[in-house]
Specification:
206 residues; transmembrane helix
């Protein structure tokens, strides 16, 4: 074997050179692939970092948008509440004004029916009743539950006034039941109206 190698030194050197060349080529190929793979990994890692950064930016933008939306919703809610409160206060003021007006209108009437007063005083109109109902609904006053009974008492007084005004007799005579009904309705109407206003007529008669 040694003799053969000695005799074929050139061939052995050629084979060795070829082997080295093949190994060098393989190593270069593997190195190229490794470099490419490392580069691809680096690019993928960079893209992943950029993706994570983009996701963080999107999350931050969504959080800011959600916060702005919550603030906008709260602003709208506050505006609605303010509008409702202003509307309620407006209704409350109108209710107080109408109640004071009706109290003033009733102040000249004594607890005993007076024909001259009932004949000459202007009856409360349906428009006034409608207005006070509307104002009470707008005001959402907790006392408005008694409003209808107050209006019913006022309407009973108006009905009595109309009966007297349309009576063909020169001198209308009040029956006992009419007198008692009038006194009750006047008291109830005054008490009911006073729950909606602090106004008190100076000339109120009982």
């Amino acid at each position: 074997m040694i003799d053969w190698l000695n005799e074929n030194t050139g061939a052995v050197q050629g084979l060795a050179s070829i082997s080295v060349a093949v190994l060098t080529a393989l190593l270069a190929r593997f190195t190229y692939r490794y470099v490419n793979l490392t580069g691809a990994i680096a690019i993928a890692a960079k893209e992943q970092v950029e993706l994570a950064r983009a996701q963080a930016q999107v999350s931050s933008s969504l959080a800011e948008l959600a916060q702005e939306q919550r603030a906008l919703n709260q602003q709208r809610l506050d505006e609605v509440k303010d509008k409702e409160e202003n509307n309620r206060q407006e209704g409350k003021r109108e209710l107080e004004r109408l109640a004071a007006r009706l109290l003033s209108q009733l102040s000249g009437s004594s607890s005993e029916p007076e024909l001259d007063y009932l004949k000459n005083s202007l009856p409360i109109s349906e428009d006034v009743f409608d207005s006070i109902r509307k104002a009470a609904e707008q005001a959402r006053d907790p006392n408005t539950g008694n409003l209808e009974s107050t209006i019913a008492s006022l309407e009973a007084i108006v009905a009595l006034q109309k009966r007297i005004a349309t009576s063909p007799q020169d001198s209308y005579v009040l029956s006992t039941s009419e007198r008692e009904s009038y006194k009750t309705n006047l008291r109830n109407a005054r008490d009911g109206l006073k729950t909606f206003t602090s106004y008190r007529p100076n000339n109120e008669r009982y």
